[in-house]
Design goal:
This protein has 333 residues and is of the alpha+beta class. It is built from eight helices and 15 strands. Strand 14 and strand 15 form a beta hairpin. Helix 3 crosses helix 8 and helix 4 crosses helix 5.
Length: 333
């Protein structure tokens, strides 16, 4: 990220994730288990483990194949996290004897449907920054985000080691690079995400991050409905009220098309990366396309100073948005 919304505020100094307890993540589910059905939902807490690590360990304990365990979203390894996992209810007895030094089952409840990827509203975060040298700067940067919204960048973890996944995605799309289905999905998603980030950086640099431009695709925060802006003076009050926001492209043939100078900017980013609007058809169902808000609201934000060199933040974000972007705005590494 070369452009930050809080660029006018100095870096606060400090470190993040010295211990897993410096980063707490609690999943906000799309629904809760009903108490009856053929699937068993587990509310689990883990520390220093990836979600996949815990899923594999749980499956082995139950004597089951790894793919019987599902989840709505992946959670960080270097964190203390709570989320729902799911597996067939026939393993209920085995689950009752599960024990792990870095994980525990807090609740088990049946449900009629299997938990699938994306079945969550968002996540609630608690962040602790240590060694902070300017708590005033930390507060000022956090206030900018609470007032104007968080730039909805994809975090660096989306792009793999040295950010190579996006270039591999281009090779899959254009050069038909052979790879596993899992890798293909990951690489193509990284490519789409990289282009979205590039356009978001342009909006921040031009100070149009929270402005309705003629030709913008504006997306409603409450429902996800989309429309093309033809009267910026009419739509800008809705942007100011955080009812709608400009939405950038996750490129693909089914995404809502922008117009005028906004469309030209999107075409230019594609051209710089030796791509065009038609090539996304090569990705099939993996690159159908969509629109993503350029900004999201920090929900229930709170800031406190725990000690002269320690600050604590808490906030919630919708699914797919990254707490690491909040930390980046404060630390400015």
């Amino acid at each position: 990220m070369t452009q930050r919304l809080s660029a006018g505020v100095p870096a606060c100094g400090g470190t993040f994730k010295e211990t897993p307890e410096d980063f707490e993540v609690e999943e906000l589910p799309a629904y809760l288990p009903s108490g009856a059905g053929e699937h068993l939902f587990l509310w689990v807490e883990k520390r220093g483990l990836t979600t996949a690590d815990l899923g594999r360990t749980l499956a082995r304990h139950c004597g089951a194949k790894e793919d019987v365990v599902s989840w709505a979203g992946l959670k960080d390894k270097q964190a203390l996290t709570r989320q729902w996992l799911c597996l067939p209810a026939k393993f209920e007895a085995e689950v009752s004897t599960f024990s792990h030094p870095e994980a525990r089952v807090l609740e088990a409840k049946r449900h009629s449907n299997k938990l699938k990827t994306g079945h969550l509203k968002g996540n609630r975060f608690k962040v602790r920054l240590n060694g902070v040298t300017d708590t005033g700067a930390a507060k000022a940067a956090f206030d900018v985000l609470t007032q104007r919204g968080l730039p909805n960048y994809y975090g660096e973890q989306r792009f793999g080691v040295a950010g190579r996944n996006a270039e591999l995605g281009r090779k899959v799309l254009i050069d038909h690079l052979r790879c596993s289905p899992f890798e293909k999905k990951m690489f193509l998603s990284a490519l789409q995400s990289s282009l979205f980030n590039a356009l978001l950086e342009e909006r921040l640099a031009s100070e149009t991050f929270d402005q309705a431009l003629f030709g913008d695709v504006l997306k409603k925060h409450a429902t996800g409905g989309e429309f093309v802006c033809t009267e910026p003076t009419v739509d800008q009050p809705r942007v100011a009220a955080f009812e709608v926001s400009p939405a950038g492209p996750m490129f693909g043939p089914e995404m809502t098309a922008s117009a005028d100078s906004v469309h030209a900017a999107e075409a230019t980013v594609l051209m710089k990366n030796r791509l065009d609007f038609d090539c996304w058809k090569n990705g099939g169902k993996l690159t159908l396309g969509a629109r993503r808000h350029y900004r999201v609201l920090l929900q229930d934000p709170a800031f406190s100073i725990a000690s002269p060199s320690t600050v604590q933040l808490s906030f919630a974000l919708p699914a797919g948005s990254y707490a690491s972007v909040v930390v980046d705005e404060l630390l400015k590494p």
